[in-house]
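Worked problem 6 (solution included).
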Amino acid sequence: MSTTPEKTVLITGANVGIGKDIARQMALRPEIAHVYLACRNREKGNREKARMAKTDLEAVSGRRIFDIVLMDVADPASVRAGLAGIDGSIDAAVMNAVGWAARRPWP
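Solution. The predicted structure is:
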């Protein structure tokens, strides 16, 4: 039985680049039990990239701890909807994605 507390992490922009590598690194840590890959959902291609990233991360880490959460950080309603789909709490968030398209600051 492990005495290491299990942690859950959410990473925005997790389907490519730095976000994907952070997800890979988190999977290498034994205390990380769940990683949410928060990816934008503007077009079908982004959803496919998220699925491919999840499959790749599972292959390189040997762990099945990843779930995709669709959210566009430039859209507050999308963020709220994405977070509503998360079961339980999040111990850490890596805010890697940038919301350049926002027309106005969040309320």
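Discussion: The chain has one domain: 7-94.
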